[in-house]
Amino acid sequence: MAGWDTLTAANPEKFNSMGSEDQSVPFSTLFTGVMIINFFYWCTNQQIIQRTFAAKTLAEGQKGVLLTGALKLLGPLYLVIPGIIAYHLYASSGVKADSAYGQLVFDVLPAPLTGFFAAAMVGAILSSFNSALNATTTLFSTGIYKAHLQP
């Protein structure tokens, strides 16, 4: 809790989700662009749709989507808070924003766990890539190849 108090006292503006007038992305974007992106993600993204269709029953598919939505709400805890911590630690030391997360992981985790963390990150990235590739090939094979090239 002392760390939380330090963060909120040192950088209170970072916890203001409304932003200010000079922000590069205005708050009204939540009701336009962000809503459209989330509509795409939850309703038309083939990675989500295929996993829902692959459920054994309708109830399991609905539970899976609801659980995923609940976990998505935890995003600020593992995305935003580490970013604010990295800003607090490295803003004055010249670490660029793109490398702040890696520096934070390097400084916080013991040496053997940094390799494990890197392997977990690569695994997560490859899993997302494989899901996108699978969805793309399914769309091509059923939507283009089967429908137009070899009916």
3D structure, described in words:
With 151 residues, the chain is mostly helical. Among the domains are: 1-7 and 25-73, no CATH class; 109-151. Helices cover 74% and strands 0% of the residues. The radius of gyration is 20 Å and the shape is extended.
Spell out the key features of this protein.
single chain, 151 residues, extended
Task: Outline the secondary-structure elements.
Elements: H1 2-10, H2 33-44, H3 46-53, H4 58-72, H5 75-90, H6 97-108, H7 111-149
Helix pairs in contact: 3-4, 5-6
N- to C-terminal separation? 63 Å
Following the backbone from N to C, one meets helices and strands in this order, namely HHHHHHH
Helix content: over 70%
Helical stretch count?
Answer: 7
**Cα gyration radius (Å):** 20 Å
Q: What's the count of strands? A: 0
Structural class: mainly alpha
What is the approximate shape?
Answer: extended
> Mean of the pLDDT scores?
83
Q: Summarize the biggest pleated sheet.
A: none
Taken as a percent bin, the fraction of beta residues is: under 5%
